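hi! just following up on the protien thing from before. the input was this:
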Amino acid sequence: MKALVTGGAGFIGSHLVERMVELGYDVVVLDNFRRGNKLDKSVLKKITLIEGDVRDYDTVFEATRNVDYVFHLAAVLGVDIVADNPVETMETEVVGLHNVARAAIYFGVEKLIYASTSGVYGKSAIEKAVSEDFDVSPKTSYAIAKRYNEIYLASLFEEKNLQSVSLRFFNVYGPKQDNRMVIPRFFEQALTGRPITIYGTGKQTRDFTWIGDVVTATLELAKKARGCGIYNISNESEITIEELAHKIIEITGSDSEITYIVPSKNRYDFEVERRFGSSKKLYEVTGFKPDTPLDYGLQKVYEYILNTTIAGAKHQKKVNEAAKAEETKN
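and the predicted 3d structure came back as:
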């Protein structure tokens, strides 16, 4: 089985590619590497790597040649980056998907798997876990583009019979994620003793989904979903951002204090008070739904940071020295 993964050097993409290589897929990765390359060196030897932008059709066309599946994950990410670059965000989403879909149809690709977002629900769904039949209300350039692409894929299925799956991710987290996202940012602040900064009151809730579960759900849907569908990938649980900060302080043993920041104007549309999702539809199709406990996932992220970052190494050294001093004292 041969697959193209756009954005395959990024956080979610690299985990997906590594799992696919383990399963024996022949993988092509297309990425512009603007945010670096998160793929392990051992994996790089086993894949075809293409540097390029999904907005360039010729590059996408060549990357799609002879593949069976396309996993389209390339995107502009990060609240501040998206807020400051709405045109690039929209172009990467809309032009990128148009190019990928056009090439997929030309080469007769079996299925296109597209990374959408829970952000399409906007601020409207706050009473309970949101399911795919909820009315959507995207507000940001990022979420609007994602919703447009979901509709575009539905149209392509009707007219061109291109099978597709749109994945509405809910706050994916795990090793290798950078501090544009809240969990690695909190860990970095805690490990360096800086204040943990929360935008707003901290009472807003999120549904954090472990990267390993996201990869499993993505591959299961690629195999089992038929036609054109939209699926939540969520852990079906919620936690306040304030509670998350306290968990990370406890895990790290940090002395960091929590400070609250009034969101700037460019972040306003991203500030949702409550969001957690239902993975019922995912389970009905695949027999799988995310269930990794947040405490387990946070511990794994912490261990990764300790072993791979300067801040983690300094923190580990400090802990070791304190333990040694206590042992000598006793």
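Residues 232 and 302 are 27 Å apart (CA to CA).
The domain at 2-173+208-236+282-286 is CATH 3.40.50.720 (Rossmann fold).
cheers
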